[in-house]
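Methods: example folding runs. The two proteins below were folded one after another, and each record is reproduced exactly as written to the output file, sequence line first and structure-token line second.
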Amino acid sequence: MSTYNVVFAGVGGQGVITASGILAGSAVRSGLDVRMYGSYGMSQRGGSVSAQVRIGDRVLNARIEKGEVHLLVAMELIEAVRWAPSLAPSGRLLSSLSLIPPSGKVLRDGGARHIEFLRARPGSVLLDTEYLCGTAGSRGVTAVLLGAASSLEGFPVRAAVLEEDLAGEAGSRSAPVLDAFRRGSEAAK
């Protein structure tokens, strides 16, 4: 297997680091080599947060170069637009339609131009994660996007392994989180 490059992007507090950690742990449990790199910036103040996860049989470094992202998982619409140029020509984009202030306050059109830009890119899937997460709360957005990722062709980690790790992360409140994971998987097909 060649290296599969994933970037998680969002705003501080959305679960970018949690999602990347779950994916990395699931990949390791699947017998794959993983390297991670995170950029936390102003995460505690609602600033941009990203995490890069490289998965393969043997991965030598964590850094993903521009144009080499196979999958961009964006938890916020503006972050999807910011990271879209990093996608490989055949790369896939999964994004929440959520707008987090201050972006949400600045965009008077509700992000319509940005949604149009992202939808024009082949392989883009935009999800109403707020709706799909159901009663799972903030953990549900992470679950929806991981579920959607697990349904994509060529994704290196089986859905069952991700579900186990999500259940472990959510503990006794895992039922709605796993429901959100399954809804995300169905929505991306």
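Second run, written to the same file directly after the first:
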Amino acid sequence: MEEAHRSRCPINLTLEILGDKWTLLVLRDMIFGGRRHFRELLRLDEGIASNVLADRLKTLVAEDLLTKADDPTHKQKAIYSLTEKAIALVPVLAQIGAWGVKWLPVSEELSIRAKLLEKGGPLLWDQLMAELRAEHLGTLDHRAKRNTAAVRAKLQKAYEETVRRKGLRGQRGPRIPQLGQGRPRTRT
């Protein structure tokens, strides 16, 4: 039996999957932060509740945006992987970030990645998607052969440099989260 949808409009159907407050943030942290475990994702900078995260992950798996498997390094952990369907959202997230930089009161350090993605355009997005395919799908193409984490590492380095530079100007900035780590905290 087919599910009832408000309409068959592609924007409506997309929003039925991605249009809540948390789903794109979970995908953001998997794509740009390298987070793959429940506890890593629970530390979203915006503070998601565990029951909400569990619900979003379940939905993302059901909608074939993520896969869930037992983590071979730990018997009690699951590891989430992006599917091709989720990886294809990189250009969408890049455009959402670019729009936010242009129209919203973003912070310099949290917008640097969006600025670089906008500047790099489709070529950079394709490189990032190739890296994600290598990491999550086990496929390696010519764009990812040299360094399977080059784009994410470049984005992380730019973030860290921005935080350091702001700190040098006497401003207290957040702790620099490494890929896969939790919410930044204010330095004391």
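Comment on the second run: Residues 108-137 form the longest helix (30 residues).
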